[in-house]
Amino acid sequence: MDAPKKTCAGRIRPARMSDVRPIHALLASFAAKGLMLSRSISSLYDHLRDFVVYEEDGEIHGICALHICWDDLAEIRSLAVTESHQRCGIGAQLVESCLDEAESLEINKVFVLTYQAGFFRKMGFLDTDKQNLPHKIWSDCLHCPKFPDCDEDALIRTGPQAGG
């Protein structure tokens, strides 16, 4: 049985320079558990504009990024919420924020590679084969230590409903 949802009183906003180290720490904690790949601080500075954060009482408790891959394709990546703030709906809010941005950019396909496929299915993502994501495979996956034996599930939202 699922635990009841908690109430969290923070807000989602675009990431800023002072968020890089807290973002890095949150990603590193999830990477240490094998839940996602780590990202360098340099990479976070390079992609800071991709990120939105959930902030409560001046602390970052959630992060998510929308990375544009091609003219009609973007990836939801680096979704993480601190354990103390899970079960508040923060993850869904972060993903919705990224989907809203995808819609405003007229991006018709948004995908995710994840170990949490059930969460994304509840948000309208459908299973897809990684071979349907050639831009991802040739730009990022080739450099991944798990390539070619990726154990993440690929899911996608397509059409006008892909964003928001």
Question: Could you characterize what this model shows?
Answer:
The protein has 164 residues and is α+β, with helices and mostly antiparallel strands. It has a single domain (11-162), classed as Aminopeptidase, CATH 3.40.630. It is 28% helix and 27% strand. The chain contains five helices and seven strands; from the N terminus they run E-H-H-E-E-E-H-E-H-E-H-E. It has a seven-stranded mixed beta sheet, sandwiched between helices. The protein is globular and about 40 Å long.
Summary?
The protein is an alpha+beta fold. The chain has one domain: 3-Layer(aba) Sandwich (Aminopeptidase). The chain is built from five helices and seven strands, in the order E-H-H-E-E-E-H-E-H-E-H-E.
Shape: globular
Distance between the termini: 29 Å
For the record, the CATH architecture stands as 3-Layer(aba) Sandwich
Low-confidence stretches: none
CATH topology: Aminopeptidase
SSE order, one letter for each helix or strand:
EHHEEEHEHEHE
Number of helices: 5
CATH class: Alpha Beta
Helix content: 25-40%
Number of domains: 1
- Please give the number of β-strands: 7
Q: Which strands sit side by side, in order, in the main sheet?
A: 1-2-3-4-5-7-6
* Beta content: 25-35%
Rounded radius of gyration (Å): 15 Å
Q: CATH-wise, what's the superfamily?
A: Gcn5-related N-acetyltransferase (GNAT)
